[in-house]
Amino acid sequence: MNKSGAGELQQRLGRARRVAVLTGAGVSAESGVPTFRGADGLWRKYRAEDLATPEAFRRDPKLVWEWYDWRRQLIARCQPNPAHQAIAFLERRSQDFLLITQNVDGLHRLAGSIRMVELHGNIWRVRCLEEGKTTENLDVPLQAIPPRCECGGLLRPDVVWFGEALPPEALQEAFDAAESCDVLLVVGTSAVVQPAASLPMVARRRGAYVVEVNLEPTPLTSLANESHHGKAAEILPRLLAFDSAFRNPHSAFEGPGGPCSP
Ligand code: OAD
Known about the structure:
The protein has 262 residues and is of the alpha/beta class. The protein has two domains: 7-32 and 80-120 and 166-247, 3-Layer(aba) Sandwich (Rossmann fold); 39-77 and 124-159, SIR2/SIRT2 'Small Domain', CATH 3.30.1600.10. It contains eleven helices and nine strands. The protein has helices at 6-15, 42-45, 48-51, 54-59, 61-76, 82-93, 107-111, 168-180, 199-205, 232-239, 242-247; strands at 18-23, 96-101, 116-118, 121-128, 134-136, 155-159, 183-187, 209-214, 226-229. The strands form two sheets. Strands 3-2-1-7-8-9 form a six-stranded parallel sheet, with helices on both faces. A three-stranded antiparallel sheet has the order 5-4-6, covered by helices on one side. Helix 6 (82-93) runs parallel beside helix 10 (232-239) and helix 8 (168-180) packs parallel to helix 9. The radius of gyration is 19 Å and the shape is elongated. Mean pLDDT is 91; it is low at 247-262. 2'-O-acetyl adenosine-5-diphosphoribose binds at residues 24-26, 29-30, 35-38, 41, 52, 102, 120, 160, 162, 188-190, 193, 214-216, 218, 231-232.
């Protein structure tokens, strides 16, 4: 179901002072990264309580790390898809922009996104339980499971697990953006995990134009100004005039930041 065509969104983006995008696992689905819910979702095959909670890690760090090592190997084979690229393109065309992602896979950054908060952390970072220090770790596969810090302390993935607080600065930035943006795109999220699920409601209440792109209807669908159902990698480039703009940078919507150089 499409509540509206691309024309209204193009106009809104052209006038927007501040643009925000919220993404979830669905934006990476066509890159080959599994989502969490739905028919082939990770939470159908694995129990979050065993793999994605601080208690699970205390109980069995080896098991948790084996699962993360498997996911890292899988993600390492994936490339950003046209949905990630269209979002990076939108950032370059926007005066004031923030990408808020729940994904930990790092594919947005690979696609060229810069102004971004990763609400649930990043699977390519590790954190020392002794020193609290975070570092990048790109080893695929990991050299030792569980990996250890130079100080001897146990390392954990620098991601947010169930029952843990989100990074406060990232969360603040995300809510600030939701409160002040003129347009919010919500792409590939089931919109059921808090606090990220509240962001579209906040934006809508503050008068933002909210556009959803998802394979199927979600709790957000009835609230959004536009809902586009289908694959993000097909819909987003079309909605954002990503391809045509690259052929002719002056032909797509002209944001306040001016046309984008490909
Ligand atoms: P989910 O797996 O809950 O939802 C993925 C959404 O993407 C669903 O609504 C699908 O319909 C949609 N989708 C799937 N393929 C798509 C495609 N090709 N194009 C567009 N949409 C598509 O993932 P999230 O909403 O990101 O948290 O889940 C939120 C959080 O719950 C995750 O960050 C993770 C998870 O448990 C933690 O691990 C803490």
